[in-house]
Each structure stands twice: as C-alpha cells, then as structure tokens.
Sequence to fold (829 residues):
Amino acid sequence: MNRRDFIKLAAISGIGLSIPRSFDSFIAPAEAAEKIDLAVAHGVSPSKITRAAINAMGGMKKFVSKGDIVVVKPNIAWDRTPEQAGDTNPEVVGVVVQMCYEAGAKKVKVFDRPVNDPRRCYVQSGIADAAKAAGADVSYVDERKFKEMNIKGEALKSWPLYTEVFEADKVINIPIAKHHSLAKLTMSMKNWMGVMGGSRRTIHQRLDESLVDLSMAIKPALTVLDAVRILTANGPQGGSLSDVKKMDTVIVGVDQVAVDSFGATLFGMKGSDLDYVKIADKMGLGRMDIAKLKVKRMNI
Amino acid sequence: MQNLRRITQGIFLLLFLFLFLQTEAKGKDELGYPIKIFLDFDPLIFITTILSAHTVQKAFYFSLAVIAATMLLGRVFCGWVCPLGTLNNIAGSFRKKHSDNISLNWHRTKYYILMFLLAASVFSLQLAGIVDPLSLLIRSLSVSIYPAFNYGTKAVFDAVYNSDIKGLVDISEAVYSVFKKGILSFQQPFYNQSAFIGILFLFILGMNLAEKRFWCRYLCPLGALLGLLSRFSILKRTVSEGCTSCGACASVCQGNASPDKKEDWKDTECFYCWNCDDVCPQNAVSFGFHPPMSPDNIGGITGGYGGLDLGRRRVLTSLVSGVVAVPLLRANPLSKAEVPNQKLIRPPGALEEREFLKRCVKCGECMKVCITNGLQPTFLEAGLEGIWSPLLIPKIGYCEYRCTLCGQVCPTGAIKKLDLKEKAKIKIGLAMIDKSRCLPYAHATPCIVCEEVCPTPKKAVWFDRVSVKDRNGKEKTIQQPRVDLELCIGCGICEAKCPVIDRPAIYVTSIGESRSKENQLLLMQQGKY
Fold:
C-alpha cells in the first residue's frame, strides 16, 4: 500500500465512521480498512447484528472465496427451542449461511453431532429450517465420516474427527454462549466437541486441555459467537426461561481465544477465569487479553 | 376376480407398510400417521380390551366397520385385507404345486384359541395381542424383521463404500441416500429377543409350506372371531347342477372351506377369495346374496348353519383353560406390592401395572417409535403375562425429555397420551449413584457428564464440591454428583451417557415411578398419591 492509497482509504474510513451507526451494515468495504480484532454488535435483530459484525470484520468476502465449500458449525446439541438458549440462534445461523453464498461460496454445509436425538435437535432448535431456507446443505452426521486423526495434542493424541470439517475450504464456527459446570462457560472452543466421534464423554477428565487440543487442530476462518440469548445457569442445555438472559449481542472474530475471552465478560467473568482460554493463550493459539485487542462495538 | 383380489391385498399391504414406516420420529412433537390406525380396525383387540379393561379407546369403534362387513360379507377381511394373510398368501405360493391336497382339518383349533383368549380377558388377562395377527405382525416387523432388514442393507452399502471403487461408490451412495430417505430407519434399531421373535414369525410364514395359509386356517384367533361373525353373512356360495364334482376347486381353496363338498361348504372357513368360482370348468360356482335363514341357505346350497361343530367339551375346556390361566400366571412374587421389579421401568404415561397389563397388547409400536431405541420387549420382567410389553433399558436408550411419541402410538391407552407439560412431571424411576464406580467419588477424577445431560430445567443432578487428595497427597477440589430425588424423573440419560459404560456409575431403577402407589421411596411422594 502506498501513501496515496493509504490517504484514500483513510478518507473513506473517515466518511464511513461519520455515517450514523445504523448504516454500518451497508458500508462494509469502507470499514475493511480499519483492522479490528473483534466486532461486537448489539441490537434487537439477530440477523442484522450478525451481518453488521461480520461486515465490520471486513465482510464475508474476506473470509470466504468464490467457489469455496464452507462448513458452518452451529451448536445443535440439545432438544431445546430458540427461547431456551440451548442451541445457536437459528436466525444467526441463517444469515451466516446467506452471507457465505453472497460471498460466492459453492456449497455451505451445516451439521452437528448432538447429545439429544439429532432429529429433535435439528427441528426443535429451528436451525435445520433456517439453514435450509438460506440454501445450506443440512445433514445429520454420518458415522462413516469420522476418521481417526493424529492431532498430537496435550490430552488428545488422536481422535476420530469429522472429515467434512477438514475437507472444507473454510470453516465458520457459530457457537452460543452458555453456562457449563466444568468448563464454566461453553462458547467457541468447546463447540468443537460437536465434530468429535467416538465416546467423547471421557474428555471431561481433562476437559480444558482437550478443548485446546481440538481448537488447535481445527482452524476456523471466522467465529461468530451468538449471545442473542445466553444461558446463565443449568447449562449447557437449560430449559428454564429464568436462566436465559437476553443480551442481543453477537461477537465476531478470527481469533477464537479472543472471542471466548470477550464472551466471558458477558457473564461477569474474565477470560482468565476460564482454564481453556488461559491454556490456549499460553500455547499461542490466540490472545486472551482483550485490553490489548481492537474491539469495535456497534449498536444496530 | 383373482386379480382384483390380489390388487386389493397389495394395496392394503402397501398401506400397512407405509404406515409402519411412518411410525418413526421426524423431530416434531407430533407423529403423522402411525401404524396404530390398522389396529384401530381390529375387532379382536377391541372386544378383548373391553372385556379386560372395561374401557376402550374411541378409535377402536372403527373396528365395528370390520364387524359389520364380516356380518354382511363373511371373512373378506382375511381374504382381501389382512396384511399377515397376504404375506401368508405369498409365502404359500412358494409351496410346490400339485403336492397332495390333504388338509389337516384343524380349523377348529383357532376357535379354541379364541375361546381361551376371551375367557382370560373376561378375568382381566389380556393375551390376545400375542397371537392377534395385526399385533403379531407389527411386533415382528418392529422388533425383528425391520431391524434385520436395516442391518443387512446398511452392511451391503457400507461394503461398497469401503471398497473405494470410484464410480461404483457414487452410484451406491446415491441409491443409499434414497433408501435412507424412504425406507431405512434413522438409526439402526436393536432389540432384545429380536432373533426369537423373528424366528417365531418366520415359522408362521414357513408353515405355509406345509399347508397354505396354515396360520389363517388353523391358528388365527381373529380369523376365528370373524368366522363366527360370518355365520350371519348374506354373501353365500351356490353351486349349480352343472357341477361334475371334478374337485378342481378343492386345490385352489385358500381357506379350509371344503368347496368341493357342495353341501358341506364351510362358510366360516371361506375367505371369499373367489378362486373356486374362477377355476370351475363348468362355471357352476357363483357367489351371491341370500338372506340368512332363507330356505336357500338351509337346503342344498350351502353348508351354512351348523357346519361348525366345535364340540361342547372342547369349548368348555378352552374356556376353563382361559380362566385357569389367570391365577396360574399371576401367582408369582411380582404380584406382591412390596416386591417391585427394579428393572421394570415402564414408558412415561404407562398406567399402574395391573391396569397397564389389562390393556397392553404387545404390538411393539411404542418400541418401534421410541426415539432412542430404549423401549425394549420384556421377557419375564413383568411375568409371563407381560411378555413383550415395553420396558425402558436406559443403557440402550434413555427417555427423551420432550418426546411423547410412545403415548401417541399406543392403541389401547396402556400408555397415556401426554402433552409436554404432563410429560415433564412424570417420573418413570429414580437415578442412584454407584459411588464405588463414579469417577469423582472413587477416583478423584473430574467428570460431570450426568449433570451436563440432566434435562430437568433445574438439574436433578447437582454437585457437592469437596476437597480430595490424590495419591501424592496433593489436594484438589472435585465436584461429586448427587441426585435430587424430588427433581429426578428417571429418564435415564445420565445412565445412557455415563462414561463408565459397562456398568454405569449412575443408573435408574423403577422406584419412585409416578404410576405406582407402592413402589415409592420419598415420604412426600407416598403422601401425595
């Protein structure tokens, strides 16, 4: 970038920033110039804030190229309805799928390996419908597609993981922020349990290390943390609306450690309260100290 | 007529199989068209349920249509509709033609079976479902044949998939995905006793090789019931003077109706298949409407009335056997209220055990539809009386918190239809922790799976945070799970997901089940009943 380009860009960004906030979502390319680590959008429409936050990160084109096969991985673990905040918000999933196609993706795949019956989880969460409406290829996990993978981690040396995740050109993680009795909070890094095959229940014996090992092996192009509704107790499946807190927020970043660290603040915690975030930071997977990150906050 | 009959049989068999495939969860709360619809038309289940439980589901009034049709037209149900009859028909066609036509003439046997079942049901023992053809067919398909079909099909496609032959794999996967959508089950079902129940079913089909329609002619109690009703039928067979007694009709008769013996034609054994009419070289046979008790009916036209001589002593013996069976089956320790079977975890909404057994016809629909495959046929857990009734084996599959499908498909109301609110309150048992095997208790190793998966909004599994020492004396804090017995509903997901997979460290037993007054642990529950 030469000086003239820089001045041009700076001018455009200046114009961009001077436009009222509600227009943010329409001026994505202009904002691309401003390099930020996390985009945090707040507003009543889950799809609008998701779009705005992704645009603030530079737009989906920055992460998805023309002809890409993209895996979008929501949390569809539980037989719960969207109001109960056990699974990722369907609107958020829908708009991410839509934006992938807008960026030229050839195919967007959506799947998860749920804990409850997959049929009920896919239908009751509203995710199957929302993703299909946006054109995604929604499938149930096919047991044959788990392959033992040598991930050489601290706790997990190798594990059967879902091959479609590794065969895809891009992976986008869309977790939901929830309480969890062992991890304390489950957000983006813990969402990778959904691509584990085999008897994944045993990883709780060394959960934090295992989550970092998994997150090191799977490199998402983008992480969209759904905090439209968060589950503050009786997680990770909840069930009672009194444990659900409406935050109307979406956090987008490339660094999954930073996303989780920021996510912790929604629960009145710090990233360093979460052992897996601490370990991941130490291992160099990402940055935990959000004070040092450039966070763009928006009200839509 | 033969073709028309075959087409009709085919349509009903396909309808039956279609409804059978529809009896599967799709993820929604409600099921579309369960196979239960077929049983709703079953007069044997209708009558025995009324006798044993003194109440019946409204849908069973459909079976009055079958009763009415039989009283008008005879056993057309057997010849034209019954899916098991059609399968027997098909199996019988594999029998060598021109083999000897000697019939065993055991047709009375089925009437004795019917008498036995009716007498037992009067004294509240419901055994009809074990031998009722529709119930038997649904159970055999659900528990045995369909799982085997799935297993075999999957094995073939998996073998091709693993062969890695380019091109071939693409084709087979395309076909496989069509199969998966259309006729295979969502996940491979597994059932206890599947081989046993399957062999019994295949044996019934195999008996057609000994004599065609063996089951329908000699054993089927529904056929017997319809046979009795058909005596009032006005559709009768006539044989004109042209008959040369060539005997051609005898070899094609589906039933055991002796069509060649003009006067002694057994109307109760006739399936109205029309074969004798079709085959008659003299065109001497015809079917037509004749008012019952008309002179036509008494004289040379039909065997009609009085053709069925069951014998007073044998009828009496059958009836008495049915009555004697009641105490014989029930005089066992399970009848003692203080000795409940810990493993007998009934589906949610199941009635109190005595009432449950009066209604359950062991059709296996609840097992077919169970979303986790956890509902399994009992063997002797509920006594011989309760054989093949449903029980939940959490290790195989837990009870999905927001699923109510078993109650939706139960034809007799043995399992109540619940809405989600009611379901959330019903306890089917209670979970207990085996501290000697639980990781946080016995081995100071973190594990929270039972708590994580516990579905009640306020979790029934909670943690006691305790400080423990490891082998090196190093102190650490660990969360030890405890069960809140008031909140626990006994769904068994904790047992199903416990990492100690061979003998789970948390497991459910039947105690605390809402349906029982006696099988209780908590003072609160006992007082509230």
